[in-house]
Specification:
By secondary structure, this protein is an all-beta fold. The protein has one domain (15-142, 153-167, 183-370): Methylamine Dehydrogenase, Chain H, CATH 2.130.10. It has helices at 170-174, 318-323; strands spanning 2-5, 9-10, 15-20, 31-36, 40-45, 58-63, 69-74, 80-85, 90-94, 100-104, 111-116, 123-128, 133-137, 155-157, 161-163, 187-192, 199-204, 210-214, 222-223, 230-231, 245-250, 254-259, 264-268, 278-280, 294-296, 302-305, 311-316, 331-334, 346-351, 356-360, 364-371. A hairpin with a 4-residue loop joins strand 22 and strand 23 (264-268). Residues 221-244 are annotated as: Disordered.
């Protein structure tokens, strides 16, 4: 497997999250949406262009937040998308008009991750540095008496379900720190399982364990003592101290976890209580932060991720899944290098049908196409 890339586009601030608009909204032409450190959203045409016009065209621009955008996701019908920000808000946008149609309140820390339900155009989940997982319905409105009702503006939305302290240990749930506040473990990634509309998986900064939540069993709008339906062992403890999870990626049968020990673990989604069946590694892969992410190709053949060293790593996982075998080498796609020999971290990546996008700290976005 080889990939080819042309010159990258430049954004106005370091890009933090990337996702392709589903083709139902773009007449089949790939458009990449990029959220950046200053709270802006850029829409980039990813169509191949002549060499003399190799830079991609900016086809839309939106000032969405006053602070960094950490994640951006589309609804399953792609009519709406939501942006998660360090300003502790989630904002809902109309894809066609780019109008701001809703604001979600409730998190008390930077919102790190989003996942839209595969079965509902209006329900999605979020995870944040405040240690909570929240589920939202864009059709609802804020129930507080003090809420301002906007008849012609964005709705104020409350969570329909909150799971507090989602990744605190049993002892931490009972313990308080020296100044009387509960211990908080950041939730760094979240994903709906594809074939179960009631099942969510989440992971955090404290260790490599993944928790499976059945949202049907949670009682009331706030559940401070919710228990996961299952939990994977922490595979990272085999290498000494625990390492957190930077990102989750799931298809119909496998869940992949990118951990800060620079190993990707693969679990069958029908058994999230056993150890990982597959490990993906590379001697040059470095994931030491919670900004590096993964993406699966639409056919689930390729799994790609960024790295601290300015490189994109891609594995052909089709054989690994069939034989449940690990891999220790990846195809390496060189994105960028900083000054004085240093590297710019490649954080977010995403796939469309035949193109892979990557973004870097050097404010560039690259598009890669597999070559026969």
């Amino acid at each position: 497997m080889t990939f080819q890339s042309r010159l990258s586009d430049r954004t106005y601030a370091p890009p933090l999250t990337t996702t392709f608009i589903p083709s139902t909204q773009t007449s089949g032409a790939p458009v990449l949406v990029v959220g950046d450190e200053e709270g802006s959203v850029s829409f980039l045409d990813a169509q191949p262009r002549a060499k003399q016009r190799s830079n991609r065209r900016l086809v839309g621009y939106l000032e969405a937040h006053d602070n960094a955008i950490f994640d951006l996701k589309f609804s399953c019908d792609s009519a709406q998308f939501c942006t998660a920000s360090a300003d502790q808000e989630i904002r809902i946008w109309d894809t066609r008009t780019q109008a701001h149609v809703g604001t979600c309140h409730g998190h008390t820390g930077s919102i790190k991750a989003l996942s839209w339900s595969n079965f509902s155009d209006s329900i999605f989940a979020s995870a944040a540095r405040d240690g909570s997982v929240r589920v939202w319905d864009t059709r609802t409105s804020c129930q507080k008496e003090s809420a301002v009702i906007h008849t012609d503006g964005p709705r104020e939305i409350d969570p329909m379900l909150t799971i507090d302290k989602a990744h605190a240990s049993a002892s931490e749930l009972r313990k308080r720190n020296s100044i009387g506040r509960s211990v908080t473990r950041s939730v760094t990634s979240i994903a709906y399982l594809q074939h179960q509309d009631n099942l969510l998986v989440s992971a955090g900064s404290a260790n490599g364990s993944v928790k499976l939540w059945d949202i049907r069993t949670a009682s009331g709008k706030s559940s401070k003592s919710a228990k996961p339906a299952s939990e994977t062992p922490d595979m990272t403890e085999n290498n000494g101290r625990p390492h957190g999870v930077s990102h989750l990626a799931a298809d119909g049968s496998w869940l992949w976890t990118l951990c800060t020990n620079s190993i990707i673990y693969g679990y069958p989604t029908n058994n999230l209580t056993s150890e990982a069946r597959i490990q993906l590694k590379d001697d040059e892969l470095t994931c030491a932060s919670f900004w590096v992410r993964m993406a699966l190709s639409p056919d689930s053949r390729y799994l790609s991720c960024g790295s601290k060293n300015g490189t994109v790593f891609s594995w052909d996982i089709s054989n690994s899944k069939r034989a449940q075998q690990s891999q220790d080498k990846a195809v390496k796609l060189f994105h960028s290098k900083g000054t004085n020999g240093t590297s710019n971290e490649v954080g977010s990546v995403d796939w469309a049908d035949d193109v892979l996008a990557s973004c870097s700290d050097d404010m560039s976005v690259r598009f890669w196409r597999p070559q026969p």
